[in-house]
Amino acid sequence: xxxxxxxxxxxxxxxxxxxxxxxxxxxxxxxxxxxxxxxxxxxxxxxxxxxxxxxxxxxxxxxxxxxxxxxxxxxxxxxxxxxxxxxxxxxxxxxxxxxxxxxxxxxxxxxxxxxxxxxxxxxxxxxxxxxxxxxxxxxxxxxxxxxxxxxxxxxxxxxxxxxxxxxxxxxxxxxxxxxxxxxxxxxxxxxxxxxxxxxxxxxxxxxxxxxxxxxxxxxxxxxxxxxxxxxxxxxxxxxxxxxxxxxxxxxxx
Amino acid sequence: xxxxxxxxxxxxxxxxxxxxxxxxxxxxxxxxxxxxxxxxxxxxxxxxxxxxxxxxxxxxxxxxx
Lengths: 253, 65
Fold this sequence. Notes:
The complex is a heterodimer of chains A (253) and B (65). By secondary structure, chain A is of the alpha/beta class.
């Protein structure tokens, strides 16, 4: 459950960088995503067309505070987004570094505290750091969104052991892998590890065929989720014959 | 009066944020506004007085990740 909302598709899709509004529209449908992320900017040239896509998609809107570098900017952006999109959901990003796009955990916690107290449902973009995660929960967040890898890098889960530890530490808290996913297999891997959802954008938008890739990601996320629910076999260090030895014929001449 | 709208220096006639949004040709519900870095809710735009040098942001939905 994400702030009281259950999602049947656990893929959350970004809406930026698509070759055209028509491709974006098709990709959203093909992905099966029920949550799409959006932003807030000075009026661009196709603002009207984009508003129509949001309306027609039927998806729940998750506005972001992308590009904000201070808690103050992020809080103001979040309040503007709440009014404009009519939702208390906010993907809280407070960027610490323009080149690495690494979250600034101190400003993130500060902004999260203000927004949670103001009635927002905060989805904080964070690292796999356990203490930062605890501070965010104390601030009032009920979901955490650790990065897989730096935004737009397509590197997949760069610190698998750290993410595994985070999953175990925050059992029962919805965790969404946000950013850095490059391929459907990486998204499936995150879901197999027990993460609750995957949020991505560039891997679909910058694919040769974004609509096909959106479909592939939708299926991979569903497969990974199903595999986690089904329970993966334990890993073994040695071979173990799967065909029974009992009843084996003696065929040596 | 000279103000900054979305980062651009502009000479405007509007005295309030509500009038400015209309003067710029926006539907009031299509935009979110901030004055000098602080969010101004839609219902408070009419009482948000503009003064020379004010920094106004008028934002709309945009693609995002």
